[in-house]
Amino acid sequence: MSRIAYVNGRYRELRNASVNVQDRGYQFADGVYEVCEVRGGRLVDYPRHMARLQRSLRELRISEPMPLPALAIVMHEVVWRNRVTYGLVYLQVTRGVARRDHAFPPHPVKPSVVVTARALNYEKNQQTAANGIKVVTVPENRWPRVDIKSVSLLPNVLAKQEAREKGAYEAWYVGSDGFVTEGASSNAWIVTTDGRVVTRSVDHGILAGITRAVLMEVMDALQIRLEERPFTPAEAYEAAEAFVTSASQIVMPVVAIDGRTVGNGQPGGIARRLREEFHRFSAFS
Ligand code: PMP
């Protein structure tokens, strides 16, 4: 079965799906995106992802490409046409196609919309979570507006590549103040030796992760103590547990940071529990 992508009003075979070379997403990374987990063929926490999309668009003054109910239909359709039961759906909206000039197009252009979906291997992901992942720290070198989920991801690409080349799976950015901001594609968490879960509060230094927000509700319900504050790599090395969150990984335990073992080198009990309980608290659309 060939994979299908939605591109500006059409469902196309993925291998033939393309955008105009003058698309501002292509030329300037002038666009935003969202990634939703798909489970049982349904979209996880979709309304929250759409709310964040609207905010990203507003911040960059890109107009909404279509009414949100229509977008929901497209996203479900792409999931269905690709027969994805467990995986991801990706949505990208750019400012549109215009003659290359840094400033916004002088006349309004239609934003470009692309939606793709792909299956993930559930067993493989569960195995990765059972083993835990390794993280390396890298200097924070992104622009200050990482609260906007923009497709300008070059620093994230380089950080992730550096992690891979060092045998790790994720990179954690460390700001000039010495505190961890977040991962290249995830939010960063630790658990203190007395069982408090710590993550940085939402400011312009991190993306307000949807998984992060839902997980806080899970922790509230399970009466797990939360501390929203920054932490340093040194504190993380000595933590009882560490983990990352994102729509594609949900809660992914971290077992080593910069080559130092976290806890006993196995995924921690709180991270495992949060991973197991997460979907009881998420909304399915
Ligand atoms: N921070 C960054 C930089 C990310 O790319 C992601 C993944 N989109 C996250 C955090 C986690 O966000 P979410 O839980 O909404 O996937």
From TrEMBL:
Pfam family, one: Aminotran_4
Record family assignment: Belongs to the class-IV pyridoxal-phosphate-dependent aminotransferase family.
Transmembrane spans: none
Catalysed reactions, semicolon-separated: L-valine + 2-oxoglutarate = 3-methyl-2-oxobutanoate + L-glutamate; L-leucine + 2-oxoglutarate = 4-methyl-2-oxopentanoate + L-glutamate; L-isoleucine + 2-oxoglutarate = (S)-3-methyl-2-oxopentanoate + L-glutamate
Gene Ontology terms for molecular function: L-isoleucine-2-oxoglutarate transaminase activity; L-leucine-2-oxoglutarate transaminase activity; L-valine-2-oxoglutarate transaminase activity
Protein's UniProt keywords contain Zinc-finger: no
GO cellular component terms listed in the entry, alphabetical order: cytosol
Summary of the function given for this chain in its UniProt record: Acts on leucine, isoleucine and valine.
UniProt EC number: 2.6.1.42
Record's protein name: Probable branched-chain-amino-acid aminotransferase
Annotated SUPFAM superfamilies: D-aminoacid aminotransferase-like PLP-dependent enzymes
CDD domains: D-AAT_like
Cofactor needs: pyridoxal 5'-phosphate
Keyword terms, alphabetized: Amino-acid biosynthesis, Aminotransferase, Branched-chain amino acid biosynthesis, Pyridoxal phosphate, Transferase
InterPro entries the UniProt entry points to: Aminotrans_IV (IPR001544), Aminotransferase-like (IPR036038), BCAT-like_C (IPR043132), BCAT-like_N (IPR043131), Class-IV_PLP-Dep_Aminotrnsfr (IPR050571)
